[in-house]
C-alpha cells in the first residue's frame, strides 16, 4: 500500500532495527568502504579497562533483553493452548 510505496520512493534499503519498538521499519544507510573510515582513536591505558567494561556491559544488557523477550514470547504462546 501507501506505506510500502513511500518507503520504496526514498531509495534506501529497508531493514528492521531491533532498537525500534515492534520491529519498525527504517531506511538503512549504506556503509562506506573501510578505506574511507578514519582510524580508531587511541585509548589511554588508564581508560582501557573502563572502555572494555562499558562495551561488555552494553552487550550483556542486549543479551539479557533478548533473553527476556524470548521468555515473554514463550510464556505468551503457552497460554493459548
From TrEMBL:
Q: Which InterPro entries match?
A: FHIP_KELAA_motif
* UniProt-recorded name of the protein: Family with sequence similarity 160, member A1
Taxonomic source organism: Nothobranchius kuhntae
Amino acid at each position: 500500500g501507501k506505506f510500502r510505496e513511500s518507503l520504496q520512493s526514498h531509495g534506501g534499503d529497508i531493514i528492521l532495527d531491533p532498537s525500534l519498538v515492534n520491529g519498525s521499519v527504517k531506511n538503512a544507510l549504506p556503509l562506506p568502504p573501510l578505506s574511507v573510515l578514519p582510524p580508531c582513536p587511541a585509548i589511554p591505558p588508564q581508560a582501557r579497562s573502563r572502555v572494555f567494561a562499558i562495551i561488555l556491559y552494553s552487550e550483556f544488557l542486549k543479551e539479557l533483553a533478548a533473553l527476556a523477550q524470548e521468555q515473554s514470547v514463550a510464556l505468551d504462546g503457552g497460554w493459548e493452548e
